[in-house]
C-alpha cells in the first residue's frame, strides 16, 4: 500500500472503514452503520479538500464487527446496535500518538453510500485497551461527486475523535459501541418491505499495509433463507439468524464492500405464515392468491418514483410469484382476476420486457410466444370479468404493453358493467344468448345497419317540385344578367 497522502478524490473513501445499514420501509426502513477508526487528517492538507489521512505505520491486524438488527415492536422502530473491535499494531520504529477518528455521519453525499447514516451520539462510547476514553467531535469537508454538484448541497462530515498511543510492535485495541437512528423513512425512494445493509470495507486502506483479518457478522430477527435475501455480497455463510463474512490479508477496495438487502422482519413473518397455510391446505385458492401477492411485493419495484413503467425485478422471488399465480388459475380457472394477475406477473418477469425497460432495447414483436401467453391470459380475464381493483391495474398494464409491443389493439370486450366473480365463487359464467351460439365472450357485438323508412323515400311529386324550383332560380339569374 502506498503510504503517502491519498489523491483528493479517493482519500476520504480510503481512510475510514465503514458500514452503512439502510432498511427499506414497508415501508422501507433505512438504517445505516459505518464502522472502523481512521488516522487523523493530514495537517498539511487542512480543510480545503475532503479528509485525507496522515502517514502512519500503524496496521490493522484484525477487526471484528457485530451488527444487530432487532425486530420492530410495532411502534417506534428500535435502534440498531453496533459493536466493533479493532486490534492495531505499530510496525514502525517510533511510537505514534494520534487522534483516531470515527465517522458520525456519512462520508459521501452520493447515493452510492445509501444513506441515512446517523449515529445517536448520546449512545456512542469508545474504549482503548478496554478502558473508557473521552471523545470530541471534529468536522471535515465531504467528498463531492458530479451527482452531488447537481444537487448543490454538500453537508460536512462529522467525526468522533479520541486519543490513542501506539507503542512500537505492541498490539493496541480499541472498541466502539453505538446505536444507529432508525427513522423508517426513504430519502430517495426504494424497495418496499426490505431492510438494506451495506458494509464498506474499502475505507480501511487508510492504515498501513493490508488488513490481516476481518470478521463481520450481521444478525437478523428471523431464521435466514436464501429467498429472504434480495441481494447479498458473495462470500457469506448463513447460520440460523446470522450472515457472516470472513476476509483474510487484503487491501480493501470498492469491490470488497458488502451489500445486503433482506426482507423486512414483519413482512418475512407474513410470508412464512402464508407458506404454512398453503402447505396445510394446498387446494385453497385464496391462500395461494395471498402468497402470490406476498411474493409479488418482493419482486416488482417501481424505479420511476411514481407510477411510471421503469421497474426493478427481484429474481429470487419472481419465479415463486409466477408459480403461485399459475396455481391460483389452476384451482379457480373461471376467476377473471386470477387470469389478470397471472398475465401481469408473466409480463413483468418476461426477460425481453425487463431488458426493454432497463436498457431501452428494440420493441418486441406481437407474435412472440411469451407475449402471446400474456395476451391470452388477458383475454380470459376480460371474458370472465374483473374486480374494480384488477380493472384499474389492467389499464396500466395495457398502456405499458402498447409502448413495448406496438401495433396491438387491446380493447376490453363487453362494458364497464361486467360483473366480477368474488374470490370464493367458483362456477364459470355461461353465455345465455342463443342468437349467436358461436360468439366468443371477447367479441364486441357488431352494429347492424337500419333500413330506411318508406316515409323518407322521394316520390315523383317531390321530384317535380324540386325541378320547378330549379327553373325559377335559373330564370332569375338570366334576367339579372340581361339587365346588366
Structure in a nutshell:
By secondary structure, the protein is α+β, with helices and mostly antiparallel strands. It has helices at residues 8-11, 146-151, 265-280, 285-297, 315-331, 336-348, 351-359, 369-384, 388-404, 460-483; strands spanning 18-22, 58-68, 80-90, 96-103, 125-128, 131-133, 136-140, 157-166, 171-180, 194-200, 211-219, 229-232, 237-239, 242-250, 258-263, 300-302, 311-313.
Keywords:
484 residues; alpha+beta; Immunoglobulin-like; 2 domains; 8-stranded mixed sheet; disordered N terminus
Report on this model:
The structure is a single chain. Mean pLDDT is 74; it is low at 1-35, 111-115, 183-191 and 414-465. The protein has 2 domains: 8-264, Immunoglobulin-like; 281-404, Serine Threonine Protein Phosphatase 5, Tetratricopeptide repeat, CATH 1.25.40. The chain has 10 helices and 17 strands. It has 484 residues and is an alpha+beta fold. α3 (265-280) packs antiparallel against α4 (285-297). The strands form 4 sheets. It has an 8-stranded mixed sheet, with no helix packed on it. The protein has a 4-stranded antiparallel sheet with strand order 1-10-15-12. A 3-stranded antiparallel sheet has the order 4-8-7, with no helix packed on it. It has helices spanning 8-11, 146-151, 265-280, 285-297, 315-331, 336-348, 351-359, 369-384, 388-404, 460-483, and strands spanning 18-22, 58-68, 80-90, 96-103, 125-128, 131-133, 136-140, 157-166, 171-180, 194-200, 211-219, 229-232, 237-239, 242-250, 258-263, 300-302, 311-313. The protein is elongated, with a radius of gyration of 34 Å. 28% of the residues lie in helices and 23% in strands.
Amino acid at each position: 500500500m502506498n503510504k503517502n497522502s491519498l489523491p483528493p478524490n479517493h482519500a476520504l473513501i480510503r481512510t475510514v472503514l465503514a458500514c452503512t445499514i439502510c432498511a427499506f420501509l414497508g415501508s422501507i426502513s433505512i438504517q445505516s452503520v459505518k464502522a472502523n477508526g481512521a488516522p487523523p487528517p493530514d495537517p498539511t492538507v487542512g480543510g480545503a479538500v475532503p479528509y485525507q489521512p496522515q502517514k502512519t505505520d500503524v496496521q490493522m491486524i484484525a477487526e471484528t464487527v457485530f451488527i444487530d438488527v432487532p425486530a420492530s415492536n410495532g411502534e417506534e422502530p428500535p435502534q440498531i446496535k453496533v459493536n466493533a473491535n479493532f486490534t492495531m499494531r505499530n510496525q514502525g520504529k517510533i511510537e505514534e500518538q494520534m487522534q483516531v477518528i470515527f465517522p458520525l455521519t456519512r462520508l459521501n453525499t452520493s447515493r452510492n453510500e445509501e444513506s441515512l447514516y446517523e449515529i445517536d451520539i448520546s449512545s456512542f462510547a469508545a474504549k482503548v485497551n478496554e478502558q473508557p476514553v473521552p471523545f470530541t467531535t471534529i468536522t471535515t469537508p465531504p467528498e463531492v461527486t458530479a451527482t452531488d454538484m447537481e444537487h448543490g448541497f454538500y453537508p460536512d462530515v462529522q467525526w468522533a475523535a479520541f486519543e490513542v498511543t501506539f507503542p512500537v510492535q505492541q498490539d493496541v485495541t480499541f472498541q466502539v459501541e453505538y446505536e444507529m437512528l432508525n427513522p423508517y423513512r426513504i430519502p430517495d425512494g426504494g424497495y418496499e418491505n426490505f431492510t438494506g445493509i451495506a458494509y464498506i470495507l474499502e475505507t480501511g486502506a487508510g492504515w498501513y499495509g493490508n488488513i490481516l483479518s476481518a470478521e463481520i457478522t450481521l444478525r437478523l430477527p428471523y431464521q435466514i433463507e436464501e429467498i429472504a435475501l434480495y441481494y447479498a455480497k458473495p462470500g457469506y455463510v448463513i447460520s440460523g439468524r446470522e450472515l457472516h463474512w470472513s476476509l483474510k490479508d487484503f487491501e480493501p477496495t470498492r469491490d470488497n464492500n458488502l451489500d445486503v438487502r433482506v426482507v423486512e422482519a414483519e413482512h418475512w413473518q407474513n410470508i412464512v405464515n402464508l407458506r404454512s397455510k398453503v402447505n396445510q391446505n394446498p387446494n385453497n385458492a385464496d391462500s395461494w392468491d395471498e402468497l402470490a401477492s406476498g411474493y409479488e411485493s418482493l419482486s416488482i419495484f417501481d424505479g420511476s418514483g411514481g407510477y411510471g413503467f421503469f421497474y426493478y425485478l427481484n429474481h429470487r422471488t419472481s419465479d415463486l410469484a409466477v408459480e403461485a399465480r399459475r396455481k391460483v388459475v389452476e384451482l379457480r380457472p373461471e376467476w377473471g382476476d386470477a387470469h389478470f394477475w397471472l398475465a401481469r406477473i408473466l409480463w413483468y418477469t418476461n426477460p425481453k420486457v425487463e431488458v426493454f425497460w432497463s436498457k431501452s432495447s428494440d420493441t418486441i414483436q406481437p407474435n412472440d410466444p411469451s407475449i402471446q401467453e400474456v395476451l391470452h391470459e388477458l383475454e380470459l380475464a376480460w371474458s370472465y370479468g374483473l374486480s374494480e381493483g384488477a380493472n384499474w391495474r389492467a389499464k396500466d398494464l395495457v398502456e405499458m404493453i402498447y409502448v413495448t409491443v406496438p401495433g396491438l389493439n387491446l380493447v376490453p370486450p363487453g362494458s364497464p358493467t361486467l360483473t366480477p366473480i368474488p374470490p370464493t365463487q367458483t362456477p364459470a359464467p355461461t353465455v345465455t344468448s342463443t342468437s349467436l351460439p358461436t360468439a366468443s365472450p371477447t367479441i364486441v357485438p357488431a352494429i347492424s345497419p337500419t333500413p330506411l323508412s318508406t316515409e323518407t323515400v322521394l316520390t315523383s311529386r317531390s321530384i317535380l317540385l324540386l325541378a320547378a324550383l330549379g327553373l325559377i332560380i335559373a330564370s332569375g339569374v338570366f334576367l339579372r344578367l340581361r339587365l346588366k
